Predict the 3D structure of the following.
Amino acid sequence: MRYTGPKNRIARREGMDLGLKTPGSKNHARLLNKLTVLPGQHGVRRRRKTSERGIQLREKQKLRFIFGISEKQMKNYFKKSVVKKGNTALYISQYLERRLDNIVYRLGLAPTRASARQLVVHGHIAVEDKKMSIPSYQVKVGDKVSFLKDKSTKIPYIEKTLSNKDIFLPGWLEKKAIAGILTSIPTSDEISKQINLRLIIEYYSR
């Protein structure tokens, strides 16, 4: 199942900002202040040394939490990637980056992947001007992603997000006004800045 518990708790557990809270919000500021403090009442004194397997598990969990996917989905992406010839880590990245909810987030149409997923599920997003309500839908190169109706842009938190001019756009995306196009196959560059994909491959390969 996809994790639906306290988001600040899992970010503190992993010791990094997983992008689960809206940047600039009070909750995000609270998280940043406590990011180095592990959850739980005993702190770090009772923590055991993490095994190699444990380190691999933590990397896998980080990736799952960042993209908001279930263990079953994560395992399926690995199985699809490992049977292909070439770089398994790159293929996993491509499956994750091409998810519709991730594309909506990357384009700056929503402040977090969770809010992007909600927009998709509630029918606010269109692919090639046709409603698409499946968050895991794999966007194809050349596909245009936009809001289905203009009134969606008037949702307060969406309106605020769209006014943010500091959105970093990956090289494989192109944005025009409030729509975007997947111009090429995604790379693993952005994921690799946060996650050691090799450890995840080792985890599932055992």
